[in-house]
Amino acid sequence: MGRAPCCDKASVKKGPWSPEEDAKLKSYIEQNGTGGNWIALPQKIGLKRCGKSCRLRWLNYLRPNIKHGGFSEEEDRIILSLYISIGSRWSIIAAQLPGRTDNDIKNYWNTRLKKKLFGKQSRKDQRQQQQQFMRQATSSDGMKQEAETGDVNGSSGLPAINYNWHQQTIVGPVPGMMMEGHRIRDEVDESIRKLLYKLGGPGPFATLQVPQCVPPMCEGSPSIMLPSCTVDTTSLNEGGMQGSSTLPALELDQSFHFNQVKLDSLDCFFGMGTDQSMRWSEVSPLVCPNNTVASSSQGLQPYCHVDEPANLGMK
DNA sequence: AAACTGTTCAACCGCAGAGGT
DNA sequence: GACCTCTGCGGTTGAACAGTT
């Protein structure tokens, strides 16, 4: 069977919008609104465009008060904090940045912010490092199996650490939030915290679960664990999140490792001196906030265990 | 100057969920 | 409850542009 197409693709124009099309769409919506029906809208205006395309064009480009380009460091911080906390939920992130669209933020993250964070590498180097990473990962049998089977219940026997979603300042540990011994950007921090509180639901014990660890990759530094926080997002999915069950922590972890676990490039976000390059163990609070990353009795960094948000309160 | 490579970003695609019947 | 339509979202693509060789 299959799903009926949203429009007749043969008779619909694709590709970049002409100024005339923009003008038509803009003036119509400004005068009449969308009428609550994007599908019918192009016919009303006489545009040979798909309704979805009209909606996208309006939301991402024609809508009033849209900002393009020129992301400030403040915005970078907000995006980073939220990405670390909630992942690629661009619409939610965009809602915290007036004038920004989800598409804009997504593009910005994928093309610039990632590089700004992880440093610039050639694709060849990235491939080599990824291959090396995978080789090392697969040579660590036990952990590998656990990672593959998605042992989200922490049945490895490693102790779980509980992190209270609401009692902590989620983004607090982000180094940039502290500068010269005193806290800055409290308003932004607070607003993000409120958002995360909302996302985490009303329950006072709602917490984030980060159940897995990937074995240490630091050659010659067996005592350093690199927590790869593959997160059980079942609760998030229940709350409307779609897509991967892996939060960006894993990606961050791998990227950190691929870049020799040096985080010099974070300096621009967090105001660190260049001589203060950090290793994962120092930066892990970014992903697993303060008391989620505690050393176990075995000297291993087990994993962050944070109980799931009872109720996301989304939409 | 030409060819090649990398980057950016607007736009498309398909899926999932909401809401109506 | 089943089905259908529409909307919104996130991932991906590809054209245009910029930079490099």
From TrEMBL:
GO terms for molecular function: DNA binding. The keyword Magnesium does not apply. Its main location: nucleus. Residues 119-153 are annotated as: Disordered. Residues 9-62, 63-117 form the HTH myb-type domain. Residues 9-62, 63-113 form the Myb-like domain. CDD domains: SANT. The keyword DNA-binding applies. This is Uncharacterized protein. Keywords: DNA-binding, Nucleus, Repeat, Transcription, Transcription regulation. It comes from Panicum virgatum. One of its GO terms (cellular component) is nucleus. It is found in: Nucleus.
